[in-house]
Amino acid sequence: MIDQLVQLIYLISTALFILSLQWMSDPKTARRGVFAGVGGMALAVVGTLLHPQIVNFNWIVVALVLGAIAGIPLSKVALTAVPQRTALSHAFGGLAAGLVGTAKYYLWVQQGQLTRFRMGAIAIEVILGFMTLTGSLIAAGKLQEVLPTRPITYRNQNLINFTLLGVALVVAALLVVDPGRALLFPVLLVLALTFGVLLVLPIGGADMPTVISLLNSYAGLSAVAMGFVMENKLLITAGALDGASGLILSIVMCKAMNRSFGNVLFGAFGQVQAATGAVEQRTAKAATAEDAAQLLENASRVVIIPGYGMAVSQAQHRVHDLYEELAKRGVDVRFAIHPVAGRMPGHMNVLLAEAEIPYDRLVEMDDINPEMGQADVALVIGANDVVNPAARHDKNSPIFGMPIIDADKAKICLAIKRSMNPGFAGIENELYFADNTLMLFGDAKGMVGDIVKHLHGGSGH
Ligand code: NAP
């Protein structure tokens, strides 16, 4: 009876997870999607606690307390730190799968219940779980900049990595043939942990988001294997949904950067550029908030291109004021959204939605680019890599091939940032030196606020 109830609860959880993914794919239903996901997970936990096999709740309480101690501060990080927070969650997911697999291995070996099928599932679970753990920790360290963000490369790197993975698979196969070879099991764990580190070390720069979602996919797949080990159907379906959605997101991001999967994983992207001869002395033209206000007021079409700097300075509410002021004057204002602007997919959408900018004013990169030539002003707010024209023509640039928003094609480009410092990819941006670009040096929030004041006709400063 209880067993049937548990199965029913699991079925409802699965349905909620699927609906959650469906709803989250549209901004209008995204909130509902989040609630459905939370509800599905809460039901899954309740169903599992009802499980007749559970006889000892002590360790569960310990795990809940530890989870809450780690989880509550993690839920409070700033939006700009969400990628590294997500990487940490994946690390925990991988750790959980790896530990469960390890515990089950030793338990079943002792009880003589380790069939080949179980051993196969455990091997997949611990390889994926432990490589997700170390890979995600390295990714989180790079994103938090406690580790060098550049790719760390050495000779024959791919060969070494593949050999290591090959050895891990051979060890796993030996264990499946004879699960009793207990000495080999720790070897498998060490190989998986090492492989995770080596896999992520050579990746850096703008490729980190793709890697994070790929690690998400690995964590999901290790949960699938864990589902087979634990004979838990919900883990299998939830893990499969997680694994598939992570993979789909990685593919979408690769497309957004015009890169192949193999290139992201093995191309050591984001490496420091080789010095290319003498450095040209170029100067950028600076303008004031007053100049910008005048240019914007006289424009009929304005495209605002937000980036990471808008998020850092939390300028979105000022940007909303600017939008209102210009819209009042009959200026057609639209927002060009680059798929990897900011530090996580959908970052700009979330901030602009928070500031209540009408959703129909947001235009995806592919739709706005053909119209950039007709824009009177492109206003770049704290964006850098996503508007760097080098991506279109400079074969030596680490961002070559990444589609960009064509801010340089507008009649005038205004760019707000604090200095001439580079963005995430660490490279100079020729847009700032272009004849039709005017730099507005300052913090995004303060600068947009000043422009709004000048639009009001006030003195501003
Ligand atoms: P970006 O290339 O990182 O450039 C952001 C710019 O904002 C910087 O040049 C910085 O210049 C400026 N800035 C920082 N703080 C500011 C402030 N308070 N006020 C005004 N400006 C400020 O940003 P992006 O163009 O949005 O490109 C995103 C990059 O991150 C891409 O390379 C992307 O691949 C990568 N990435 C994306 C994701 C994702 O999923 N979206 C995740 C991880 C990485 P100053 O220092 O001179 O002010």
What does this protein structure show overall?
With 461 residues, this protein is α/β, with parallel strands linked by helices. It folds into three domains: 1-76; 79-266, no CATH class; 289-458, TPP-binding domain (Rossmann fold, 3-Layer(aba) Sandwich). The chain is built from 17 helices and six strands. It has helices at 2-24, 30-50, 58-75, 82-111, 116-143, 157-177, 184-200, 208-230, 233-256, 261-266, 289-297, 308-312, 316-328, 347-354, 365-368, 390-393, 444-455, and strands at residues 301-306, 332-337, 362-364, 377-381, 412-417, 437-441. It has a six-stranded parallel beta sheet. Helix 14 (347-354) links the parallel strand 2 (332-337) and strand 3. Helix 8 (208-230) runs antiparallel to helix 9 (233-256) and helix 13 packs parallel to helix 17. The chain is elongated and about 80 Å long. Residues 272-279 have low confidence and may be disordered. NADP nicotinamide-adenine-dinucleotide phosphate is lined by residues 83, 206, 208-209, 307-309, 312-313, 340-345, 347, 382-386, 416-419, 421-425, 443-444.
Topology at a glance:
Layout: H1 2-24, H2 30-50, H3 58-75, H4 82-111, H5 116-143, H6 157-177, H7 184-200, H8 208-230, H9 233-256, H10 261-266, H11 289-297, E1 301-306, H12 308-312, H13 316-328, E2 332-337, H14 347-354, E3 362-364, H15 365-368, E4 377-381, H16 390-393, E5 412-417, E6 437-441, H17 444-455
Parallel strand pairs: 1-2, 1-4, 2-3, 4-5, 5-6
Helix pairs in contact: 1-2, 1-9, 4-5, 4-8, 5-6, 5-7, 5-8, 6-7, 8-9, 11-17, 13-17
Bound molecules: NADP nicotinamide-adenine-dinucleotide phosphate.
